[in-house]
Amino acid sequence: MSEDFMLDTDDLKRRMDGAIASLKTEFASLRTGRGSASMLEPVMVEAYGQRTPINQVGTVNVPEPRMVTINVWDKSMVNAVEKAIRESGLGINPQLNGTIIMLPIPELNEERRRDLSKVAGQYAEHARVSIRNVRRDGMDQIKKGKADGLSEDDQKIWEGEVQDMTNAYIKQIDDALEHKQAEIMQV
């Protein structure tokens, strides 16, 4: 019996937490008919010879639920920021007011809500696949431990622990998806 086998559950948890964090970032980029600063996180601006996040060229504010404003610090960057938003696929038409870019958030129609709900489901499935890949890696480590002398009882205990961890993270994903879909479908 190998007493020195130790599965690195902290590493597995860290990787599963990463999948959840990535999912939350993807969910934040889905617009729900309400403005949020996080919806602009994936938008990159061609600034100073490199691709830069919008929040590094201006201040993003949400003065009211259906409006997002960007106060661009460098006047010469206003057109580049506007262009990046137009080309981002967010479906928002920026309005210029000096160095301030206003983004009125349009109402979502029923068809667009269903499409966004499906996209959220795809994001959740990608996260589930990531969690399952981490689970598979953990199970492979346990199998290697068995080859190195890990007892069958210990193997079952470790496999149960990895499976319980996987189930907990999959439940987090399902809960987050349910919440996001309810938010998207809310009129």
Automatic annotation (TrEMBL):
<dbReference type="Pfam" id="PF01765">
    <property type="entry name" value="RRF"/>
</dbReference>
<protein>
    <recommendedName>
        <fullName>Ribosome-recycling factor</fullName>
    </recommendedName>
</protein>
<comment type="similarity">
    <text>Belongs to the RRF family.</text>
</comment>
<dbReference type="InterPro" id="IPR002661">
    <property type="entry name" value="Ribosome_recyc_fac"/>
</dbReference>
<feature type="domain" description="Ribosome recycling factor">
    <location>
        <begin position="23"/>
        <end position="185"/>
    </location>
</feature>
<dbReference type="InterPro" id="IPR036191">
    <property type="entry name" value="RRF_sf"/>
</dbReference>
<dbReference type="GO" id="GO:0002184">
    <property type="term" value="P:cytoplasmic translational termination"/>
</dbReference>
<keyword id="KW-0963">Cytoplasm</keyword>
<dbReference type="InterPro" id="IPR023584">
    <property type="entry name" value="Ribosome_recyc_fac_dom"/>
</dbReference>
<dbReference type="GO" id="GO:0005829">
    <property type="term" value="C:cytosol"/>
</dbReference>
<keyword id="KW-0648">Protein biosynthesis</keyword>
<dbReference type="GO" id="GO:0043023">
    <property type="term" value="F:ribosomal large subunit binding"/>
</dbReference>
<comment type="function">
    <text>Responsible for the release of ribosomes from messenger RNA at the termination of protein biosynthesis. May increase the efficiency of translation by recycling ribosomes from one round of translation to another.</text>
</comment>
